[in-house]
Amino acid sequence: MRSRYKNLFNREKAPFFGTFHGLFYKILLREGYNVKIINGANCYKIIMSVLTKYSDDVSEDKIKEVLNNISLFKTSLKKIEEYSPTMPRDIFEECLKEYEEYKSNNGLWDFDDLSIKIINLFKENKDILYRYRKLFMYVLVDEFQDCDELQMEFLKLINKDNSIFAVGDEDQCIYSFRGSKPEYMVAFDKIFKGGKKVYLSINYRSSKNIVEVSKKIISNNKSRNKKKIEAVKKSNGIIKFSTPFDESIQGEEISKVLEKTKGSLSDNAILYRTNMEAMSLINTFIRRNIPFVLLDKGYNFYDHFICKDIISYLRLAININDRESFLSIINKPFRYISKANLDYIRKSYEDKSAFDILIDKNDMVPYQCKKLEELRNEILYLNKISLGTAIQYIISDLKYIDYLKEYAERYKQNLEEFEVILEEFKTLANDFKTIVEFLTHIERVREELEISKGVKEGVILSTIHGVKGMEFKNVFIINAVEETIPHKSSIENNLEEERRLFYVGVTRAIENLYIYSPKKQQGRFREVSRFILEGEFREIESREDYGLKVGNMVYHKTYGKGYISEIKGDAVKIVFEDKEYRSFSIKVLMENNILSMMN
User: Which of the 8 DSSP states describes residue 83?
Assistant: First the structure.
């Protein structure tokens, strides 16, 4: 942007272009502060060191959750007792204490410290504040709806005898977990004295009918400006709503649409609420050899600690000598195998299973040996039953669920979230008959995810959060069901943000929109998302015309050129060059690429 400015206005110097944090960094350096930003890897290590006191399995998501909480707390300007973390308070406060002490001892800052220091500096030193008010006569803020509390405080402090010009859309405010609020845009003219709102009412991106359904959805939110939005395009695209039985059939339906779609695969984006939902699609695409690009390149569902545990049980079943898997699961649930005995196994060079090493150990009591023999036989039994039954046997009969219950209680985690992981794991295993087939597939998924990092031409897979600001010719939104979107955790307290998120997903589509609400998801029967009802997608599906209008010139693969003389519901009547009138199902013609529009 800086280069474009210089070229456009033929100037050697340019105003500041950058983020809030970039600006704060420059101001603090200019005012004589020695600013060293903490390394991201060190942040992870600090949080990891605290969390491992409470849990043997600390996921990357859990570390991110803590860091997000620390950031949200600091930018909220609240006292510690006023802030409600999304995790046990004692754990959060210990993480915060260790994190802040590390920074203090090493003379380090994080980005939130930059914001806090600037606010304090301007409030405590009026001369400095006055100087920057005079320096910044014109301030333009883009993506204004994403501003947090501290950034808003900075803008309010700096705004005297100068001009603030903000551009944003409160309907796309989807980062409340980072402190953003739609109210900042709604109340802009009240926050900034004498402020005025100018509404940009033209949508240049999407087909007319996509703009219309998006308006129906977002109009249900109360915390927004009432805007009149019109599509510059006068043509309609495809809007298709489907209710497949489950996620597997959902993936097959999407694959069939992709195989018929013309153009680049990267014109297609499949969007979902949470990363976990991608796995059923990845399974399908690997099987059908459809290239894909996973925008969250570090994510693999099978790396979740629950998945790792069940995989270890399965690996041990096909190779009873697998010591790593034995050590991973032997005390899940707790089976009274001491740390000393686990160390004994690690150091043993005997060519036999960990079970035999312990059973043959002199100081093992007979009762414990008997229990180990029983467990070994039960694990070997997993080979004699179907894969799905084996997984359920691990969860129920081998009492892995008891371990998760104890874990959830001990670390104040939500057991329901663990159960969702279990159900997704079982769902993903449904396509395989044996343990070996499934474990082979898991390794292939790992390989394909690695390959996908270098894929340039493939279907885009992403959370809706991950594609904000992007656009695609064809958008597929999956799992549009209650408790997924809107997410269960947000229905009571943050429903409007869930609606905004769905709205953002819908408005990524340039031409065509496909939405899927499987009847069964993650092993449970689901209700269609309320957002589907608000957008009247069921009604759209029943009257879908695929953009066809009376008088359109068309080309039929069998009958050649013609024009549309009549449309009634799903029936279309076409007059061909041989003067014959023929009637067809619009859905059959369009979804099988039998009919195309002519210019």
Answer: -
User: Which residue bears the tokens 């953002």?
Assistant: 504
Selection from 538, 471, 549 nearest residue 235 by Cα: 549
SS3 content of the chain, % helix, strand, coil (to 5): 50, 15, 35
Closest CA to 514 of 226, 175, 281: 281
How does pLDDT run across 94-122, given as a tens digit for each residue?
999 999 999 999 999 999 999 999 999 99
0.85 cut: is pTM over it?
no
For the residues of 301-322, what is the DSSP string, one character each?
A: GGGSHHHHHHHHHHHHHH-TT-
Q: Which has the closest alpha carbon to 21: 104, 129, 96, 110?
A: 110
Angle at 219 between CA 214 and CA 223, to 5 degrees: 125
pLDDT at 545: 59
CA 307 from centre of chain: 19
What number of residues does the chain have?
599
Question: Does residue 455 carry a pLDDT above 90?
Answer: no
Which residues neighbour 142 within 8 Å (Cβ) at sequence distance 6 or greater?
Answer: 167, 168
Distance CA 358, CA 352 (A): 10
Phi and psi torsions of 568, nearest 5°:
-135, 105
Number of H helices, E strands in the chain: 26, 17
Question: 92: which 2 tokens?
Answer: 């959060």
In angstroms, the CA 119 to CA 150 distance is 7
Beta carbons within 8 Å of 449's beta carbon, 6+ residues apart: 282, 294, 297, 300
Tokens encoding 358: 């312990």
H/E element, 574 = strand 571-576
**Closest to 543 in 3D by CA, of 291, 276, 213, 316:** 213
Report how far residue 265's alpha carbon sits from residue 457's, in angstroms, rounded to the nearest whole number: 6
Q: What is the pLDDT of residues 525-559, one digit of tens each?
A: 899 999 999 999 887 765 555 678 888 899 998 89
Q: What is the pLDDT of residues 282-330, one digit of tens each?
A: 989 998 999 999 998 878 899 888 999 999 999 999 999 999 999 999 9
Confidence of residue 225 (pLDDT cuts 50, 70, 90): very high
Copy the structure tokens of residue 566: 């009549």
Phi, psi values for residue 209, rounded to 5°: -70, -25
